């Protein structure tokens, strides 16, 4: 838990790429949205840590998206947490939150129209909209509905100055869920 807290201590005050909030504010807002929706602890943890791949040391990154964060941050973050004993549900929700954006852009033109400038820019790096075949496969993921909810919270969690519980509150939930298997 100390390493996760340290990642937030080192990079949590950094701007959330192209948005008017910090990395930590975005994480806290996502977790709060999950909790307010009545999500289970695994989902709250995933919401809180979904962008942890952006906070990992540069030597773990496979490249950067022109000032919009780490390429494949979702896979890096999921693998990082798997290695630390987090559940597969947590890892899957994190690993697929970018795929959810690609899926929703494919399925729903109105969703595409609502994306922020930063989300549109990162979409280019993330493979663009899914193909029909990719979308059909994605829909078979056992966590499909939770992944889509995660994406919704991710898009909503960009409000400057929104009051949320602090990092210690969500780190306690993270600690309860670490080293637990499905």
Automatic annotation (TrEMBL):
One of its GO terms (molecular function) is hydrolase activity. It comes from the Bacteria. PROSITE patterns: HD (PS51831). Residues 23-182 form the HD domain. InterPro entries: HD/PDEase_dom, HD_domain, HDIG_dom, OP_Dioxygenase. This is Metal dependent phosphohydrolase. It comes from Spirosoma linguale (strain ATCC 33905 / DSM 74 / LMG 10896 / Claus 1).
């Amino acid at each position: 838990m100390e390493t996760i807290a340290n990642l937030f201590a080192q990079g949590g005050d950094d701007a959330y790429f192209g948005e008017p909030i910090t990395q930590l504010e975005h994480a806290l807002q996502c977790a709060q949205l999950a909790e307010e929706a009545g999500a289970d602890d695994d989902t709250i943890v995933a919401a809180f840590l979904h962008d942890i791949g952006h906070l990992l040391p540069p030597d773990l990154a496979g490249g950067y998206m022109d000032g919009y964060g780490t390429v494949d941050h979702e896979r890096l973050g999921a693998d990082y947490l798997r290695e630390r004993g987090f559940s597969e549900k947590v890892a899957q929700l994190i690993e697929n939150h970018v795929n959810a954006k690609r899926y929703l852009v494919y399925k729903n033109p109105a969703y595409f129209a609502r994306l922020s400038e930063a989300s549109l820019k990162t979409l280019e790096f993330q493979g663009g909209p899914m193909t029909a075949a990719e979308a059909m496969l994605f829909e078979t993921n056992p966590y499909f509905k939770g992944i889509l909810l995660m994406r919704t919270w991710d898009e909503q969690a960009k409000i400057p100055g929104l009051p949320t519980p602090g990092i210690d509150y969500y780190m306690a939930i993270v600690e309860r869920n670490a080293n637990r298997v499905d």
